[in-house]
Amino acid sequence: MNRLGAALRLELRLQRRYKFAHAAVFSGVMWLALLLPMPPGLRAAAEPYVLLGDLTIVGFFFIAGAVFFEKGERTLDAIVATPLRFGEYLAAKVIGLTGLSVLLAVGIATATSGVDYHLPLLVTGTVLGTVLMLLVGFLSALPFTSVSDWVMPAVLPIALFNLPIFGYAGLWDTGWLYLVPTYGPLLFFGAAFDQLTLQPWQIIYGLGYPVLAAAGLWLPARRWFDKYLIAKTGNA
Amino acid sequence: MSTFAALGRNDLRGVRRDTLLVGLFLAPLVWIAMVRFGTPAATTLAAEEFGFDLVPYHPLVLVGFLLLTSAIVVGGVMALLVLDERDAGTLTAIRVTPVSMGSYLGYRSATTVGVTLLIVLGTISASGLFPARLIPALVPIGLLTGLSGLVVTLVILAVATNKVEGVAAIRALGIVIAGLPLLPSFMDSPWRLAFGLVPTFWPTEAFLAAVEGTTWWPYLAGGVVYHALVIWPLYRRFTRSTG
């Protein structure tokens, strides 16, 4: 736990240094500028899309950015030589950036809806959605040597994980979309703003499936990290 | 002109190996498909489920999905290309060739504007939602959108010191460039002109006025003037920072 604590402190320091917090606040203010002028009914309808389509994505870009920073700055070479384990390294990143996303989501929801939303549902959806997008972002960045090589292909996982939006909106009525693990968090966002009432199976699916999917993403994260970064360290 | 040809050949050689440029060619196809097939479906759904008529908002769909995205994507990709070249030392190498920094930047600016124009023309005319008789008006509006793309490029180059920061800047600018100009359409007060501070406000308003059949050239003229005022100091800043 001590090592994880140290890694978390480092992560928060890096977040400040990379100006992630500034960028997060900026994007939050911009969303408010877009959402606040809307009529309240439309705003409540738009909010779940904003939360899934943007807030969880913030983490996706940040974690990928952090991977490229660390490749470039050679900090990984140093970290690999410490007793810090991979699980702790990734957990510190995921916890730090998920915390940032939750703050942002709660801030935006409170500024737009006051106390007229369900906080536990919003936080649950944000945590699950962000953790998924963080792991996908981390994985997506590993095989690429440069940010500019990564930025276009990165659109594919983002598009895939946003597909549930079409099912949620009723534009594409197919059960296949439930295979995309971000559907659960999106249902939670909808329920947080009273757009829908969750059925018991939706709660079980929305909590269980993202957790399983995140665990499934964690395993290749370790393998790819070793393959693309550790094996290359020292002669990159 | 031979300078442009040489730089152009080099870029095209890069297309084969550079996912960034490949993406620039593929992305518009995805947008066309989304708008062409998604809009009628969404219109039917809105009418049946909510009794809401989406048809009057079709021009806004074109603006949001096609016009504004062109400016941010082309502007962002060009900025990343320049940052790539700065990191790789290409800009330093250019300085010892007969190519002046001015003509290098001129080339980059011309391609930004030209590619944006092509994407605007191609995507909007292929969307199935745009009357063909208005396509001539789309040329000046597309060029103005290209100038917005150039502002995006120069702003990113002004704030980002490396490519990771460049991606972060694109992310942050995205909402400003592609989101805010959609708001004035819902506002009915003189305050809407305050959005004129966002470059893409001008091509957006010109486009919407052209579709409605009202006078759109003042937005075009105002836009050209405003873009010139914004681009000049940014351009000077960039030449000083690399000089």
UniProtKB/TrEMBL annotation, chain A:
This is Fluoroquinolone transport system permease protein. Keywords: Membrane, Transmembrane, Transmembrane helix. The chain crosses the membrane at residues 20-37, 49-69, 90-111, 117-142, 154-179, 199-219. It comes from Amycolatopsis magusensis. InterPro entries: FLQE3_permease (IPR056926). Pfam families: FLQE3_permease. The keyword Ribosomal protein does not apply.
TrEMBL record, chain B:
This is Fluoroquinolone transport system permease protein. The keyword Protein biosynthesis does not apply. Keywords: Membrane, Transmembrane, Transmembrane helix. The chain crosses the membrane at residues 20-39, 59-83, 104-125, 137-160, 167-187, 216-235. It comes from Amycolatopsis magusensis.
